[in-house]
Protein backbone atom coordinates (compact mmCIF):
# COMPACT_ATOMS: atom_id res chain seq x y z
CA UNK A 1 0.00 0.00 0.00
CA UNK A 2 1.49 3.37 -0.94
CA UNK A 3 1.64 6.23 1.51
CA UNK A 4 -1.25 7.79 -0.37
CA UNK A 5 -3.46 5.00 0.92
CA UNK A 6 -3.14 6.52 4.36
CA UNK A 7 -3.20 10.13 3.35
CA UNK A 8 -6.95 10.61 3.76
CA UNK A 9 -7.10 10.10 7.50
CA UNK A 10 -8.48 12.94 9.58
CA UNK A 11 -5.82 15.54 10.35
CA UNK A 12 -7.40 16.78 13.56
CA UNK A 13 -8.16 13.48 15.22
CA UNK A 14 -10.21 13.58 18.37
CA UNK A 15 -12.04 16.80 17.63
CA UNK A 16 -15.42 16.90 16.00
CA UNK A 17 -15.50 18.61 12.63
CA UNK A 18 -17.55 21.74 12.40
CA UNK A 19 -19.74 22.29 9.40
CA UNK A 20 -17.57 24.12 6.92
CA UNK A 21 -14.46 23.32 8.98
CA UNK A 22 -11.24 21.81 7.65
CA UNK A 23 -11.80 18.79 5.49
CA UNK A 24 -15.32 19.82 4.70
CA UNK A 25 -14.46 22.84 2.60
CA UNK A 26 -16.60 23.51 -0.42
CA UNK A 27 -15.04 22.38 -3.64
CA UNK A 28 -14.02 25.89 -4.54
CA UNK A 29 -12.53 26.62 -1.12
CA UNK A 30 -8.84 26.79 -0.65
CA UNK A 31 -7.13 23.82 0.89
CA UNK A 32 -7.37 24.41 4.64
CA UNK A 33 -3.76 23.40 5.28
CA UNK A 34 -1.84 24.69 2.27
CA UNK A 35 -4.05 27.68 1.50
CA UNK A 36 -3.78 26.78 -2.18
CA UNK A 37 -6.77 26.85 -4.48
CA UNK A 38 -7.52 23.46 -5.99
CA UNK A 39 -5.80 23.08 -9.36
CA UNK A 40 -5.68 26.73 -10.30
CA UNK A 41 -7.58 27.63 -13.44
CA UNK A 42 -9.43 24.32 -13.61
CA UNK A 43 -12.81 23.53 -12.08
CA UNK A 44 -12.74 20.74 -9.47
CA UNK A 45 -15.37 18.81 -11.42
CA UNK A 46 -18.27 19.73 -13.64
CA UNK A 47 -21.06 21.76 -12.02
CA UNK A 48 -23.59 18.91 -11.80
CA UNK A 49 -21.17 16.62 -9.96
CA UNK A 50 -20.03 19.51 -7.81
CA UNK A 51 -23.65 20.24 -6.84
CA UNK A 52 -24.27 16.57 -6.09
CA UNK A 53 -21.15 16.38 -3.95
CA UNK A 54 -22.15 19.49 -1.99
CA UNK A 55 -25.62 18.06 -1.36
CA UNK A 56 -24.35 14.63 -0.28
CA UNK A 57 -21.75 16.22 2.01
CA UNK A 58 -24.41 18.50 3.57
CA UNK A 59 -26.70 15.51 4.20
CA UNK A 60 -23.95 13.69 6.08
CA UNK A 61 -22.32 16.72 7.70
CA UNK A 62 -25.38 18.76 8.71
CA UNK A 63 -28.12 16.12 8.77
CA UNK A 64 -29.67 18.13 5.92
CA UNK A 65 -32.62 16.84 3.90
CA UNK A 66 -31.44 16.04 0.38
CA UNK A 67 -34.43 17.55 -1.42
CA UNK A 68 -34.20 20.87 0.44
CA UNK A 69 -30.45 21.28 0.36
CA UNK A 70 -30.13 20.21 -3.26
CA UNK A 71 -32.67 22.72 -4.51
CA UNK A 72 -30.83 25.46 -2.58
CA UNK A 73 -27.51 24.41 -4.12
CA UNK A 74 -28.95 24.21 -7.64
CA UNK A 75 -30.44 27.66 -7.22
CA UNK A 76 -27.19 29.05 -5.81
CA UNK A 77 -25.17 27.59 -8.70
CA UNK A 78 -27.76 28.64 -11.30
CA UNK A 79 -28.15 25.07 -12.60
CA UNK A 80 -31.21 24.19 -14.68
CA UNK A 81 -32.39 21.63 -17.20
CA UNK A 82 -30.09 18.71 -17.91
CA UNK A 83 -27.41 19.76 -15.43
CA UNK A 84 -29.97 20.01 -12.63
CA UNK A 85 -31.51 16.66 -13.62
CA UNK A 86 -28.08 14.98 -13.65
CA UNK A 87 -27.16 16.50 -10.27
CA UNK A 88 -30.47 15.26 -8.86
CA UNK A 89 -29.99 11.75 -10.21
CA UNK A 90 -26.46 11.59 -8.80
CA UNK A 91 -27.48 12.94 -5.40
CA UNK A 92 -30.57 10.80 -4.93
CA UNK A 93 -29.02 7.69 -6.43
CA UNK A 94 -25.88 7.92 -4.30
CA UNK A 95 -27.84 8.50 -1.11
CA UNK A 96 -30.22 5.62 -1.81
CA UNK A 97 -27.46 3.17 -2.62
CA UNK A 98 -25.28 4.22 0.30
CA UNK A 99 -25.19 0.91 2.18
CA UNK A 100 -24.12 -1.09 -0.86
CA UNK A 101 -21.71 1.60 -2.09
CA UNK A 102 -20.03 1.64 1.31
CA UNK A 103 -19.59 -2.12 1.29
CA UNK A 104 -17.97 -1.96 -2.14
CA UNK A 105 -15.78 1.04 -1.31
CA UNK A 106 -14.73 -0.61 1.96
CA UNK A 107 -13.72 -3.77 0.11
CA UNK A 108 -11.85 -1.88 -2.62
CA UNK A 109 -10.11 0.36 -0.09
CA UNK A 110 -9.25 -2.48 2.27
CA UNK A 111 -10.73 -0.62 5.19
CA UNK A 112 -14.08 0.31 6.69
CA UNK A 113 -15.56 3.43 5.10
CA UNK A 114 -15.89 4.91 8.59
CA UNK A 115 -12.09 5.19 8.53
CA UNK A 116 -12.03 7.30 5.37
CA UNK A 117 -12.02 11.07 5.82
CA UNK A 118 -15.61 12.33 5.22
CA UNK A 119 -14.95 14.56 2.18
CA UNK A 120 -13.02 11.82 0.38
CA UNK A 121 -15.62 9.28 1.45
CA UNK A 122 -18.53 11.27 0.03
CA UNK A 123 -16.65 11.93 -3.20
CA UNK A 124 -15.89 8.20 -3.51
CA UNK A 125 -19.55 7.34 -2.91
CA UNK A 126 -20.53 9.70 -5.70
CA UNK A 127 -17.85 8.23 -7.96
CA UNK A 128 -18.73 4.61 -7.18
CA UNK A 129 -22.40 5.36 -7.88
CA UNK A 130 -21.48 6.69 -11.33
CA UNK A 131 -19.31 3.67 -12.05
CA UNK A 132 -21.79 1.03 -10.96
CA UNK A 133 -25.27 2.49 -11.36
CA UNK A 134 -25.11 4.88 -14.32
CA UNK A 135 -23.98 4.86 -17.93
CA UNK A 136 -21.26 7.42 -17.24
CA UNK A 137 -18.10 6.04 -18.95
CA UNK A 138 -15.68 4.56 -16.41
CA UNK A 139 -12.81 6.87 -17.34
CA UNK A 140 -15.03 9.94 -16.83
CA UNK A 141 -16.28 8.67 -13.47
CA UNK A 142 -12.73 7.95 -12.29
CA UNK A 143 -11.18 11.19 -13.55
CA UNK A 144 -13.99 13.41 -12.31
CA UNK A 145 -13.89 11.77 -8.90
CA UNK A 146 -10.14 12.09 -8.58
CA UNK A 147 -10.40 15.77 -9.56
CA UNK A 148 -13.13 16.26 -6.98
CA UNK A 149 -11.08 14.58 -4.26
CA UNK A 150 -8.07 16.70 -5.22
CA UNK A 151 -10.25 19.73 -4.45
CA UNK A 152 -11.98 18.59 -1.27
CA UNK A 153 -9.36 16.31 0.32
CA UNK A 154 -6.13 17.02 -1.58
CA UNK A 155 -3.96 14.51 0.28
CA UNK A 156 -6.32 11.67 -0.62
CA UNK A 157 -6.35 11.96 -4.40
CA UNK A 158 -3.93 9.08 -4.97
CA UNK A 159 -5.93 6.89 -2.62
CA UNK A 160 -9.14 7.87 -4.40
CA UNK A 161 -7.58 7.06 -7.76
CA UNK A 162 -6.59 3.56 -6.56
CA UNK A 163 -10.00 2.86 -5.02
CA UNK A 164 -11.92 4.06 -8.07
CA UNK A 165 -9.78 1.99 -10.43
CA UNK A 166 -10.23 -1.06 -8.26
CA UNK A 167 -14.02 -0.59 -8.18
CA UNK A 168 -14.13 -0.11 -11.94
CA UNK A 169 -12.48 -3.48 -12.57
CA UNK A 170 -15.55 -5.40 -11.37
CA UNK A 171 -19.16 -5.14 -12.56
CA UNK A 172 -22.00 -4.36 -10.14
CA UNK A 173 -23.34 -7.92 -10.50
CA UNK A 174 -19.96 -9.36 -9.61
CA UNK A 175 -19.59 -7.02 -6.63
CA UNK A 176 -23.02 -8.09 -5.39
CA UNK A 177 -22.15 -11.77 -5.83
CA UNK A 178 -18.97 -11.22 -3.88
CA UNK A 179 -20.39 -9.14 -1.03
CA UNK A 180 -24.04 -10.19 -0.58
CA UNK A 181 -24.78 -13.27 1.52
CA UNK A 182 -26.40 -16.11 -0.44
CA UNK A 183 -30.19 -15.68 -0.66
CA UNK A 184 -30.78 -19.29 0.42
CA UNK A 185 -28.82 -18.80 3.63
CA UNK A 186 -29.72 -15.22 4.51
CA UNK A 187 -32.54 -13.85 2.32
CA UNK A 188 -32.93 -10.57 4.17
CA UNK A 189 -29.16 -9.98 4.20
CA UNK A 190 -29.07 -10.68 0.48
CA UNK A 191 -31.97 -8.32 -0.31
CA UNK A 192 -30.36 -5.62 1.83
CA UNK A 193 -27.19 -5.58 -0.27
CA UNK A 194 -28.81 -6.21 -3.63
CA UNK A 195 -31.62 -3.66 -3.17
CA UNK A 196 -29.95 -1.08 -0.94
CA UNK A 197 -32.09 -1.13 2.18
CA UNK A 198 -31.17 -1.68 5.85
CA UNK A 199 -32.11 -5.14 7.10
CA UNK A 200 -34.43 -3.89 9.86
CA UNK A 201 -36.44 -1.94 7.28
CA UNK A 202 -36.75 -5.01 5.05
CA UNK A 203 -37.95 -7.09 8.02
CA UNK A 204 -40.58 -4.43 8.83
CA UNK A 205 -41.78 -4.34 5.20
CA UNK A 206 -41.87 -8.10 4.99
CA UNK A 207 -43.92 -8.34 8.17
CA UNK A 208 -46.45 -5.84 6.80
CA UNK A 209 -46.56 -7.80 3.53
CA UNK A 210 -47.42 -11.02 5.36
CA UNK A 211 -43.89 -12.44 5.21
CA UNK A 212 -43.86 -12.58 1.39
CA UNK A 213 -40.23 -11.89 0.51
CA UNK A 214 -40.80 -11.92 -3.24
CA UNK A 215 -43.36 -9.18 -2.86
CA UNK A 216 -41.03 -7.38 -0.47
CA UNK A 217 -38.32 -7.45 -3.13
CA UNK A 218 -40.76 -5.82 -5.59
CA UNK A 219 -41.32 -3.06 -3.05
CA UNK A 220 -37.58 -2.57 -2.54
CA UNK A 221 -37.07 -2.25 -6.29
CA UNK A 222 -39.86 0.35 -6.47
CA UNK A 223 -38.32 2.25 -3.55
CA UNK A 224 -35.20 2.74 -5.64
CA UNK A 225 -37.08 4.43 -8.50
CA UNK A 226 -37.49 8.17 -8.83
CA UNK A 227 -41.17 8.77 -7.99
CA UNK A 228 -43.54 10.53 -10.36
CA UNK A 229 -44.57 13.93 -8.99
CA UNK A 230 -48.30 13.98 -8.16
CA UNK A 231 -50.38 17.13 -8.07
CA UNK A 232 -53.66 17.59 -6.25
CA UNK A 233 -56.22 19.65 -8.17
CA UNK A 234 -57.96 21.51 -5.38
CA UNK A 235 -61.71 20.94 -5.53
CA UNK A 236 -63.66 24.10 -6.28
CA UNK A 237 -60.55 25.74 -7.72
CA UNK A 238 -59.44 23.26 -10.33
CA UNK A 239 -60.30 19.94 -11.88
CA UNK A 240 -57.91 17.00 -12.49
CA UNK A 241 -58.71 16.68 -16.21
CA UNK A 242 -58.33 20.38 -16.91
CA UNK A 243 -55.21 20.55 -14.78
CA UNK A 244 -53.67 17.55 -16.59
CA UNK A 245 -54.27 19.34 -19.92
CA UNK A 246 -52.84 22.57 -18.59
CA UNK A 247 -49.60 21.05 -17.24
CA UNK A 248 -49.18 18.33 -19.90
CA UNK A 249 -49.71 15.61 -17.29
CA UNK A 250 -52.04 12.64 -16.87
CA UNK A 251 -55.06 12.33 -14.55
CA UNK A 252 -54.32 10.00 -11.64
CA UNK A 253 -55.36 6.34 -11.58
CA UNK A 254 -57.29 6.51 -8.30
CA UNK A 255 -57.72 9.90 -6.64
CA UNK A 256 -60.25 12.14 -8.43
CA UNK A 257 -57.95 15.08 -7.64
CA UNK A 258 -54.65 13.54 -8.81
CA UNK A 259 -52.55 14.52 -11.80
CA UNK A 260 -49.25 12.80 -12.63
CA UNK A 261 -46.67 15.28 -13.82
CA UNK A 262 -44.38 14.36 -16.73
CA UNK A 263 -41.21 15.94 -15.34
CA UNK A 264 -40.43 19.62 -14.95
CA UNK A 265 -40.43 21.73 -11.84
CA UNK A 266 -43.87 21.93 -10.19
CA UNK A 267 -42.93 25.17 -8.42
CA UNK A 268 -42.94 26.92 -11.80
CA UNK A 269 -46.49 25.91 -12.69
CA UNK A 270 -49.12 28.65 -12.72
CA UNK A 271 -51.64 26.34 -11.04
CA UNK A 272 -49.31 25.82 -8.07
CA UNK A 273 -48.39 29.48 -7.83
CA UNK A 274 -51.98 30.67 -7.74
CA UNK A 275 -53.25 28.00 -5.33
CA UNK A 276 -55.36 25.93 -7.73
CA UNK A 277 -53.24 22.86 -7.03
CA UNK A 278 -50.53 21.60 -4.73
CA UNK A 279 -47.90 18.87 -4.86
CA UNK A 280 -49.16 15.83 -2.97
CA UNK A 281 -48.69 12.08 -3.26
CA UNK A 282 -51.87 10.43 -4.54
CA UNK A 283 -51.96 8.16 -1.46
CA UNK A 284 -52.08 11.22 0.80
CA UNK A 285 -54.99 12.58 -1.22
CA UNK A 286 -56.83 9.26 -0.90
CA UNK A 287 -56.51 8.96 2.87
CA UNK A 288 -57.58 12.58 3.46
CA UNK A 289 -60.59 12.10 1.17
CA UNK A 290 -61.42 8.80 2.92
CA UNK A 291 -61.93 10.67 6.21
CA UNK A 292 -64.58 12.78 4.47
CA UNK A 293 -66.19 9.79 2.75
CA UNK A 294 -66.99 7.99 6.02
CA UNK A 295 -70.77 8.02 6.61
CA UNK A 296 -71.81 10.36 9.42
CA UNK A 297 -75.12 11.07 11.08
CA UNK A 298 -75.86 14.53 12.41
CA UNK A 299 -73.67 17.59 12.41
CA UNK A 300 -70.77 17.56 9.96
CA UNK A 301 -69.14 20.98 9.74
CA UNK A 302 -66.36 20.90 12.37
CA UNK A 303 -63.27 19.13 11.08
CA UNK A 304 -59.93 18.83 12.85
CA UNK A 305 -56.48 18.11 11.37
CA UNK A 306 -54.41 17.34 14.46
CA UNK A 307 -50.95 17.10 12.76
CA UNK A 308 -51.25 19.52 9.90
CA UNK A 309 -47.77 20.73 8.93
CA UNK A 310 -46.73 21.46 6.24
CA UNK A 311 -50.36 21.52 5.10
CA UNK A 312 -50.82 19.09 2.21
CA UNK A 313 -53.87 17.33 3.64
CA UNK A 314 -55.13 20.52 5.29
CA UNK A 315 -55.07 22.11 1.82
CA UNK A 316 -57.31 19.37 0.44
CA UNK A 317 -59.60 19.28 3.50
CA UNK A 318 -59.85 23.08 3.43
CA UNK A 319 -60.79 23.16 -0.27
CA UNK A 320 -63.54 20.57 0.30
CA UNK A 321 -64.67 22.34 3.49
CA UNK A 322 -65.20 25.50 1.43
CA UNK A 323 -67.50 23.56 -0.89
CA UNK A 324 -69.41 21.83 1.90
CA UNK A 325 -69.77 24.77 4.28
CA UNK A 326 -67.51 23.19 6.92
CA UNK A 327 -64.58 24.66 8.88
CA UNK A 328 -61.19 23.06 9.54
CA UNK A 329 -59.06 23.55 12.65
CA UNK A 330 -55.47 22.72 11.70
CA UNK A 331 -53.10 22.02 14.59
CA UNK A 332 -49.34 21.99 14.19
CA UNK A 333 -46.84 22.06 17.06
CA UNK A 334 -43.79 23.31 15.11
CA UNK A 335 -44.14 27.05 14.55
CA UNK A 336 -42.41 27.19 11.16
CA UNK A 337 -44.57 24.31 9.94
CA UNK A 338 -47.69 26.02 11.28
CA UNK A 339 -46.75 29.01 9.09
CA UNK A 340 -46.54 26.66 6.11
CA UNK A 341 -50.05 25.41 6.91
CA UNK A 342 -51.22 29.03 6.95
CA UNK A 343 -49.76 29.56 3.49
CA UNK A 344 -51.09 26.24 2.15
CA UNK A 345 -54.64 27.05 3.26
CA UNK A 346 -54.79 30.75 2.39
CA UNK A 347 -58.32 31.76 1.44
CA UNK A 348 -59.86 28.55 2.84
CA UNK A 349 -62.11 28.15 5.90
CA UNK A 350 -59.16 26.94 7.98
CA UNK A 351 -57.98 28.13 11.40
CA UNK A 352 -54.37 27.24 12.16
CA UNK A 353 -53.46 26.57 15.79
CA UNK A 354 -49.72 26.49 16.48
CA UNK A 355 -50.03 24.21 19.47
CA UNK A 356 -49.58 20.67 20.73
CA UNK A 357 -52.36 18.38 19.56
CA UNK A 358 -52.29 16.56 22.88
CA UNK A 359 -53.82 19.60 24.62
CA UNK A 360 -57.34 18.51 23.65
CA UNK A 361 -59.65 19.33 26.57
CA UNK A 362 -57.17 21.85 28.00
CA UNK A 363 -57.08 24.31 25.09
CA UNK A 364 -60.40 26.16 24.60
CA UNK A 365 -59.95 25.86 20.82
CA UNK A 366 -59.64 22.08 21.15
CA UNK A 367 -62.65 21.06 23.22
CA UNK A 368 -63.45 17.43 24.02
CA UNK A 369 -66.21 16.12 21.75
CA UNK A 370 -65.90 19.35 19.74
CA UNK A 371 -65.35 17.89 16.23
CA UNK A 372 -67.25 15.75 13.75
CA UNK A 373 -64.28 14.43 11.77
CA UNK A 374 -60.65 14.27 12.92
CA UNK A 375 -57.50 13.44 10.96
CA UNK A 376 -54.39 12.23 12.81
CA UNK A 377 -51.63 12.19 10.20
CA UNK A 378 -49.14 11.17 12.82
CA UNK A 379 -45.43 11.91 12.88
CA UNK A 380 -43.76 8.63 11.88
CA UNK A 381 -40.57 7.06 10.57
CA UNK A 382 -41.60 7.88 7.00
CA UNK A 383 -40.56 4.40 5.84
CA UNK A 384 -43.45 4.53 3.39
CA UNK A 385 -41.96 7.40 1.39
CA UNK A 386 -38.37 6.28 0.93
CA UNK A 387 -38.59 7.06 -2.80
CA UNK A 388 -38.92 10.74 -1.99
CA UNK A 389 -36.39 10.91 0.84
CA UNK A 390 -33.33 9.07 -0.38
CA UNK A 391 -31.26 9.56 2.78
CA UNK A 392 -33.90 8.57 5.28
CA UNK A 393 -33.56 4.77 5.04
CA UNK A 394 -29.98 5.07 6.38
CA UNK A 395 -30.75 7.83 8.86
CA UNK A 396 -33.71 6.18 10.54
CA UNK A 397 -32.95 3.67 13.30
CA UNK A 398 -35.11 1.13 15.15
CA UNK A 399 -34.50 3.21 18.27
CA UNK A 400 -36.61 5.98 16.67
CA UNK A 401 -39.67 3.80 17.12
CA UNK A 402 -40.40 3.91 20.89
CA UNK A 403 -40.63 7.73 21.22
CA UNK A 404 -42.54 8.01 17.94
CA UNK A 405 -45.07 5.33 18.80
CA UNK A 406 -45.64 6.87 22.23
CA UNK A 407 -46.40 10.20 20.54
CA UNK A 408 -48.61 8.48 17.95
CA UNK A 409 -50.64 6.78 20.69
CA UNK A 410 -51.03 10.03 22.62
CA UNK A 411 -52.17 11.90 19.52
CA UNK A 412 -54.66 9.19 18.67
CA UNK A 413 -56.02 9.28 22.23
CA UNK A 414 -56.35 13.10 21.92
CA UNK A 415 -58.17 12.69 18.59
CA UNK A 416 -60.62 10.18 20.05
CA UNK A 417 -61.38 12.62 22.84
CA UNK A 418 -61.76 15.52 20.42
CA UNK A 419 -64.31 13.76 18.25
CA UNK A 420 -67.97 13.73 19.28
CA UNK A 421 -69.78 10.43 19.85
CA UNK A 422 -70.81 9.19 16.40
CA UNK A 423 -67.97 11.14 14.78
CA UNK A 424 -65.02 9.59 12.91
CA UNK A 425 -61.24 9.65 13.31
CA UNK A 426 -58.82 8.72 10.52
CA UNK A 427 -55.43 7.58 11.80
CA UNK A 428 -52.84 7.83 9.04
CA UNK A 429 -49.10 7.23 8.74
CA UNK A 430 -46.68 7.30 5.81
CA UNK A 431 -45.07 4.23 7.28
CA UNK A 432 -46.18 0.61 6.94
CA UNK A 433 -44.26 -0.47 10.07
CA UNK A 434 -46.76 -2.57 12.05
CA UNK A 435 -45.68 -0.98 15.32
CA UNK A 436 -46.69 2.43 13.94
CA UNK A 437 -49.85 1.16 12.30
CA UNK A 438 -51.81 -1.77 13.76
CA UNK A 439 -50.14 -1.74 17.18
CA UNK A 440 -50.58 2.02 17.66
CA UNK A 441 -54.23 1.90 16.61
CA UNK A 442 -55.03 -1.02 18.91
CA UNK A 443 -53.15 0.44 21.86
CA UNK A 444 -54.30 4.04 21.31
CA UNK A 445 -57.98 3.13 21.11
CA UNK A 446 -57.66 0.86 24.16
CA UNK A 447 -56.11 3.66 26.23
CA UNK A 448 -58.45 6.43 25.05
CA UNK A 449 -61.18 5.65 27.56
CA UNK A 450 -63.87 5.95 24.88
CA UNK A 451 -65.67 3.21 22.97
CA UNK A 452 -64.75 2.91 19.30
CA UNK A 453 -65.65 0.72 16.34
CA UNK A 454 -63.48 0.18 13.29
CA UNK A 455 -65.06 1.50 10.09
CA UNK A 456 -64.09 -0.58 7.05
CA UNK A 457 -61.78 1.83 5.22
CA UNK A 458 -61.89 -0.02 1.88
CA UNK A 459 -65.26 1.36 0.65
CA UNK A 460 -64.02 4.85 1.54
CA UNK A 461 -61.46 4.60 -1.25
CA UNK A 462 -62.37 4.88 -4.94
CA UNK A 463 -64.35 1.94 -6.32
CA UNK A 464 -62.26 -0.65 -8.09
CA UNK A 465 -59.02 0.16 -6.31
CA UNK A 466 -57.05 -3.10 -6.22
CA UNK A 467 -55.07 -4.75 -3.42
CA UNK A 468 -56.92 -3.29 -0.46
CA UNK A 469 -56.61 -6.44 1.63
CA UNK A 470 -59.16 -7.84 4.04
CA UNK A 471 -59.89 -4.62 5.95
CA UNK A 472 -60.92 -2.88 8.06
CA UNK A 473 -57.65 -0.94 7.77
CA UNK A 474 -55.91 -0.26 4.45
CA UNK A 475 -52.25 -0.29 3.57
CA UNK A 476 -51.26 1.33 0.25
CA UNK A 477 -47.95 0.42 -1.40
CA UNK A 478 -45.61 1.99 -3.96
CA UNK A 479 -45.27 -1.28 -5.90
CA UNK A 480 -49.02 -1.98 -5.92
CA UNK A 481 -50.64 1.44 -6.14
CA UNK A 482 -47.84 3.78 -7.23
CA UNK A 483 -48.40 5.80 -4.04
CA UNK A 484 -46.42 6.20 -0.85
CA UNK A 485 -47.03 3.34 1.60
CA UNK A 486 -49.82 5.16 3.45
CA UNK A 487 -51.66 3.37 6.22
CA UNK A 488 -55.28 4.24 7.02
CA UNK A 489 -57.48 3.21 9.95
CA UNK A 490 -60.91 4.79 10.40
CA UNK A 491 -62.51 4.67 13.85
CA UNK A 492 -65.98 5.72 14.89
CA UNK A 493 -66.48 6.91 18.45
CA UNK A 494 -69.52 5.14 19.84
CA UNK A 495 -69.70 6.60 23.37
C1 LIG B 1 -46.71 13.40 8.98
S1 LIG B 1 -46.57 15.08 9.34
C2 LIG B 1 -48.12 15.70 8.82
C3 LIG B 1 -48.21 15.97 7.34
C4 LIG B 1 -49.42 16.82 6.98
N1 LIG B 1 -50.65 16.27 7.47
C5 LIG B 1 -49.53 17.05 5.49
O1 LIG B 1 -50.30 16.34 4.82
O2 LIG B 1 -48.84 17.94 4.97
C6 LIG B 1 -46.73 15.15 11.07
C7 LIG B 1 -46.74 16.54 11.64
O3 LIG B 1 -47.10 16.46 13.01
C8 LIG B 1 -46.43 17.48 13.70
N2 LIG B 1 -46.46 17.14 15.14
C9 LIG B 1 -45.60 16.40 15.86
N3 LIG B 1 -45.99 16.34 17.13
C10 LIG B 1 -47.13 17.04 17.24
C11 LIG B 1 -47.99 17.36 18.30
N4 LIG B 1 -47.75 16.90 19.53
N5 LIG B 1 -49.07 18.12 18.06
C12 LIG B 1 -49.31 18.59 16.80
N6 LIG B 1 -48.50 18.35 15.74
C13 LIG B 1 -47.43 17.56 15.96
C14 LIG B 1 -45.06 17.47 13.07
O4 LIG B 1 -44.39 18.68 13.33
C15 LIG B 1 -45.39 17.25 11.61
O5 LIG B 1 -45.53 18.47 10.96
TrEMBL record:
PROSITE patterns, A to Z: NOL1_NOP2_SUN, SAM_MT_RSMB_NOP
InterPro entries: MeTrfase_RsmB-F_NOP2_cat (IPR049560), MeTrfase_RsmB-F_NOP2_dom (IPR001678), NusB-like_sf (IPR035926), NusB_RsmB_TIM44 (IPR006027), RCMT (IPR023267), RsmB/NOL1/NOP2-like_CS (IPR018314), SAM-dependent_MTases_sf (IPR029063)
Signal peptide: none
MF terms (GO), sorted A to Z: RNA binding; RNA methyltransferase activity
Classification via Pfam families: Methyltr_RsmB-F, NusB
Low complexity bias (residue ranges): 35-49
GO biological process per UniProt: regulation of DNA-templated transcription; RNA methylation
Keyword Phosphoprotein: no
Sites where the protein binds S-adenosyl-L-methionine: 307-313, 332, 356, 377
Keyword Methyltransferase found: yes
UniProt superkingdom: Bacteria
Catalytic residues as annotated in Swiss-Prot or TrEMBL: 430
Keywords: Methyltransferase, RNA-binding, S-adenosyl-L-methionine, Transferase
Coiled coil: none
Residue ranges occupied by any SAM-dependent MTase RsmB/NOP-type domain in the UniProt entry: 205-494
Region (Disordered) location: 1-49
Biased composition (Basic and acidic residues): 1-11
Family, per entry: Belongs to the class I-like SAM-binding methyltransferase superfamily. RsmB/NOP family.
Stored PANTHER family: NOP2 YEAST -RELATED NOL1/NOP2/FMU SUN DOMAIN-CONTAINING (PTHR22807), RIBOSOMAL RNA SMALL SUBUNIT METHYLTRANSFERASE B-RELATED (PTHR22807:SF53)
Function statement: May act as RNA methyltransferase.
Protein name as catalogued: Fmu protein
Species assigned in the record: Winogradskya consettensis
